[in-house]
Amino acid sequence: MHWTEQTETMVKALSETQKQMWKNWCDLMPGVPSPTSVYSNVANQISEEAAEGFKAWTAESGQVVKDVAERLLTTQSEMLRFLELSLRAWKAIAPQIESGEDWETILRNFTENLREQLLQFPQETQKAFQDIDELWRLYREQWKGLVQPWAESLRRAPWHAGQASTGNGSALIEFTNLYWDAYERTFGRMLESPSLGYTRELNEDLLKGFDAWLVYRRASFEYQVTLCETWVQAFEEFMRQRVALAQKGETVPGVRKLLFLWIEVVEHVFAEVFRSEEYIRIQGNLVNTATAYRLCEREIVDAFLKTSHLASRSELDEAYRRIYELGKDMKELKKSLQAIKGELSTPISHEAAGGKPPDLPKDTA
Amino acid sequence: MQFPLLLNPHETACELIDLNRKVLKGIENLSRIREQDIQAGASPKEEIYREDNLVLYHFTPMVDQPFRVPILIVYALVNRPYMVDLQEDRSLVRNLLKLGMDVYLIDWGYPGRADRWLTLDDYINGYINNCVDAVRERHGGDPINILSICQGGTLSLCYTALHPDKVKNLITMVTPVDFHVKEGFANLWAGCDAGPKGMNFDALVDAFGNIPGEFMNLGFLMMKPFQLGLGKYLEMIDILDNEEKLRNFLRMEEWIFDSPDQAGEAYRQFMKDFYQGNKLIKGEVKIGGKPVDLSKVRVPVLNVYAEEDHLVPPPSSIALQRYIGSTDYTLRSFPVGHIGMYVSGKVQRDLPPTIAQWLKERG
Predict the structure, then answer these.
(1) Which end of chain B has fewer beta carbons closer than 10 Å to its terminal beta carbon, N or C?
(2) B149 Cβ partners below 8 Å, 6+ apart?
(3) Contact A164 B225 (CB under 8 A)
(4) Contact between chains at A87 and B249 (C-beta distance less than 8 A)
(5) pLDDT, tens digit, for every residue of A262-281?
(6) ipTM here
(7) Which residues of B touch A267 (CB under 8 A)?
(8) Which of A167, A161, A59 lies closest to A113 in space, CA to CA?
């Protein structure tokens, strides 16, 4: 059988398999609605619909069980997604390989297309940098939509890592956005609040925050591009290895094994990049610019809290600092007191022992 | 040439359907497991000392006359110490108790906003020292043995250098010592190479106060994002029909994502002085105003590292011998990763006797 023919057979088989898998879900979980649409994106459907079913299913379970069940589900849908992507690659390059063309060039062309797709979002973001009004709108939008609390956004990290591993470009971007989410708070209300108004100071803080936000977005863009590029590089390397092995007559016995091989390759390629000075610089810049923005954000929040007759973060920190120092002093005093008590209870006098009476702390003397 | 990805469409379809069934059945099993089914902590223990968030526990001995010198376990500030007593068949503590050891454990608790100003001085000269004194008081005031793990090992090295008279023997497990070893992502990312381009920990602490545990966890996940985000759950499919293995897996999951926040000032100093400055081996670390001189660690030292450790690369731990003053130094390793040091069957079997034997030989 030729490659093209084999690929077509595989695509059909996969489509049928997805139908069957989807049916299994529906049979098992009465809460999941029956599929009505065509099966063009079954993996996503499984993921989304079953996630709903999980909520009812694991309602009585603890958080760990819920998280694991969710990740298990993602793993399955990502397995399908990865297989689809691989098949798409083969479908594109198989006829050309059969016609005797250089497969490395064909593969490079394919991954170049893939790269363009993955980088689509960052490129759009990059374009937005040229329009200051649009940026200001985005900045304010960003504040208005800040609803994800820390724990929730980061708890989802493995989910995103899973998606990222199987070619979902937006997941790669979201993965980096998790860091951004960590700074998100519901300040939109403040900005929209008519009673607060825009004081000159607040405007200055907002503008300062805008500058910091711009710098952060650029750093985030650079980071996203690096991850996307690395992912494409890994996919190309994986396909190259598979073709080379196939030419020697070696094949992979099954989807799961294939995915494990993919993980091995992609992890290796990412590890190489993660070790590079360039990556360390880009990642450091991402964290530092995000932190700088966070500090600007705090000034704005502090101003808001002050206006609302609430203790600011800085004031609370200061109060905690004083409590900490008092606590430390207290511990020291207790220790000194304990030591003095111990010495006083010993029968040997200090003079006899050749020492001086202990200096009592002023408070206890 | 054969199609290089999959041999047979029919077999592939069967495999996917089969996996799908396994997952569905497995999730049914999962949904039956309750929080109490995966509680960690296998060995009975009592609280003997408490200070702020910290609790010092004493495990109930399993022999009539335990070894006379007690062991105090000092765990890292990241992650929770119950990993050393996860479950009955995966418990370093339990195995040490069975071998006649008398074991104490520091549980650091979860630092809250009020702990933002805690320094390494508070942890080392405060908490650890107070716990050592509390244990010594119960054992006639003599020096005790310290079994320190990961970052807890680094803190214990500082402690032993500053309070050599209170420590009889020191065991360091998967402990980072040379922070500029380039094999480890933590070392690289924290800035051993990046210099001013690396992460600005001053700004990070100023911005956050305490460093969120989730931030730490994300960093750990990024070291192996695909294996930890996807591969692990692919492997899990094979144990979905085995309730016991499933519970074990869930206990591990619970532990992995149970990351306490890091007290801001202590984190700042640890990242700047240890990771970025590598000051421990240069003798430039100061705790409570006093320099930490590793050459003052002259007690017998057993240094145990994991050969496949991706968090604390072996050379980082092995470096210890070059800087301490101990003439009685023993190095042991196990062919596992960082986490494997707690849960691998081989380590569970071989590490506790190694520790017990080493301690008994030294009285």
Answers:
(1) C
(2) B73, B74, B75, B76, B84, B173, B174, B175
(3) yes
(4) no
(5) 889 989 999 999 999 899 88
(6) 0.88
(7) 224-227
(8) A167
